[in-house]
Each structure stands twice: as structure tokens, then as C-alpha cells.
Specification:
The protein has 19 helices and 2 strands. It is mainly alpha-helical. Strands 1-2 form a two-stranded antiparallel sheet. Helix 2 packs parallel to helix 4, helix 3 runs parallel beside helix 5 and helix 5 runs antiparallel to helix 16. The longest helix has 30 residues.
Length: about 450
Amino acid sequence: MNAAALPTQLAAPAEIDTGDTAFLLVATALVLLMTPGLALFYGGMVRAKSVLNMIMMSFSAIAVVTVVWFAFGYSFAFGDDLGGGLLGDLGQVFLHDVKPGSVTGTVPTLVFAAFQLTFAIITVALISGAIADRAKFRGWLVFCAAWVALVYVPLAHWVWGPDGWIREQLGALDFAGGLVVEINSGAAGLAVALVVGPRLGFRRDPMRPHNLPLVMLGAGLLWFGWFGFNAGSALGANGIAAQSLVNTQAAACSALLGWLLVEKKRDGHATTFGAASGAVSGLVAITPSCGVVDMPGALAIGLVAGVLCSYAVGWKHKFGYDDSLDVVGVHFVGGVVGTVLIGVFAWDGVTGGPRGLMHGGGLELLGKQVVAVVVAAVFSFVATYAIATVVERTVGFRASADDEQAGLDLAVHAETAYDLGSVGAASHLSKPGSPKPLQVRVEADDE
């Protein structure tokens, strides 16, 4: 579990291993691909009038987070600890003094920094699903920059950074991002959903996914990229990477089946949307535990996540918060399941680390995992709520009712998804200086 052993590696750096480096380069590309995959997944889930805006929220997160990360985010997250395991130092701002020959573990530090960047990007992009159809684009951009700096970076240091307190002092485990990515994004999604408020017509109008093939394509890309996400967190082409890969596949499949079984029993139908959501819930749950559990543990974690998440997505209707695309129901709940169950299924035969309850380890690790979950969730929710409130009161976060009703694709981006900007765009773009809609002529084929 190289991510967890990072301080030791930094203390005794090895030479660059070309195999590990090649492996991590590929893993970095796979994890970056997850954000465009998420854009399609989310894009298919919203109504047709806001699909481009949804996609743009993910793509813009790539740009904003990259700039913040390389400017100072990486240094604060993975720089030498300033004290107490709370934050890194300024020694690597703008990647200062990080040269091609600089080594982290057995890979170039530049590759490690880029790999960790992709985690920050997908975490921010995930939050957008909680406020689909109703967020100002400029407010979203400001939120992205502030959130990655003030929420993601500190939590990443606590869990993965040199001397981070959650790992070093508390002793909790998070192999690939249950705390840092999944619970963090889920708690943040709930906070921004509460600040921005529900969509017009929430709990009254049907708001079904407009394009299920797009949802399935996005889910497939996420599944594909997740192998880089989890196996890549071993930071090398080794046995732990292999264990993480097979555990990832097993958990996704057992969760998919669990979700479909619930759908069939509850609703009478097993749906494609349920299959996509079920697979993602399993991928979420196995993320923190993929490198520390065996195959029975992975299958159990996936099944529990698939069943619980299939019920959790309905909580928003019961409790009245509009988590548009189920960030809370899938990512928060799935992240909690996977992180807590490390305390049950952790197997020292995988990593030589602590054992969970099922392997004779007692309740100690389980207690540590629960404490880590509570700390991460409370920190993320409170900090995000404060950031979102400031954004709303300054540049604005909630789109106007008129823009929301018309659809954010036209209102914000002067485009529409399926008619190349021609149908219905003329009236919206008739103001002086507005771009002219693209005119398309379709001719019948000769018979």
C-alpha cells in the first residue's frame, strides 16, 4: 500500500523504476479519463435543456483544479508537514525544485503529482451532480477553486500526506480515496444542495434522465478508469495493484447485482439506470478498501453497497434535499460503507497491516474507521457549507428562475445539445450582440 507508506518512501528514496513509472503514467491517464466519463454519466442523467451545462461543469473543473493544484495545492497536500499532521508546507509551490529526476517511492515526483491531481479533479467534478440544472457557471468556477484549496487539500494531507494525522495518529486506513474522494464529495454535495436550494418543481415534476445510452457510456468509462484509480494507488506494478484491480471488478459486479435485485423486488423491473448506478456504488465502496481486503471481503462490500445505495438515493424525497444526481446516495453512502467495512474485512495477508474483525483483529480498527468517517464528513460538510454560502452572497450560486426554466444550455452557453443551436435558440439569442444560432439544413436521401 504505497500511498499509505509515502513518508517512509520519501525518507529513503529509491531509484526510478521504469516499470512502475510506465504503470503510473497509464493509471494517471485512466483517472483523468474518468472526469469526461463522469461528464457523460451526469449529462445523460439531467434533462435535455441542461446537458451541456452539466458536461461543462466537469470539464471546467479539470482546468480550475489543475491550476490550483500545481500552483500550491500539491505542496500543501504532500509537502513536509508543518505540525500536527494538518497541512504541508510551501516547499513545492509551482512544483518548485521538483525536477525530472526527483523521486517519490520508485516513480518520478512529477508523475506522482499528476496522478494525485486527477483525484482532486474527479472529486470536485462529483460535487456538481448535487446541484445540476440550477447553478450559475461563474459561481461554480469560484467554488471549484475555493473548495479544492480549503477542503480537498487539507483532507488529502490528513489521510495521505507525510505525517498526516488521520493515518499516522489515528491509524485509520484509506487506500484510494474513501475519505478523501467519496465521503468528501458526498458531504460537500449535500452542503451545496442545501445552500443552492432545490430545483424548480422538485418532488412535483418528473425529472427523469433524458439519455440512458449516454448514462451507460459514462458509467462504462468510469468503470474503465477506476482500474487506474484503485490499482494505480499502489504506485507501482506489483501484487497490491493486482489485488486492487480484481477487488475492484468483483465489488462493482456484486453491487450491480445487489442493486438490480432490490429494483426487481421493490419495483418489479431491473433497469439499465439501476445497473449503471449499482456498478458505480460498488466502485465507490471498494475504493478505500481495494488494497486491504481479500476476495470474499470485496464481494461482500460491493453487495452491501449496492443494496444500501439503492435505498439511499430515495432519501432526498423523504428528507427534502435536492441532491439532483444522487451524489449523497451513491458516493457518500458508498464511501461510508467501504471505509467502515475495512474494520471488518481488512486482511493482513494482503498488506501485512492491521486485521479487521472477521480476521481476528477485534474492534480497534473498526473504531478508528468510524472516527475517520465522522471527522471527514463533518469537516467537509461544515467547510463546504461556509464556502458555498460565501459564493452565493458574493458572485451568486443559484441561477435565476428564468434561466433555470429555459435551460442552462441556452441561458449560460448559448448552445443546445441535440439541434446544433438552431431550434428555439433564435428567440433567446435575439438580443443585439448575441451570437447567431447555427443554421442546419437537412435534406432527404434520394431513393
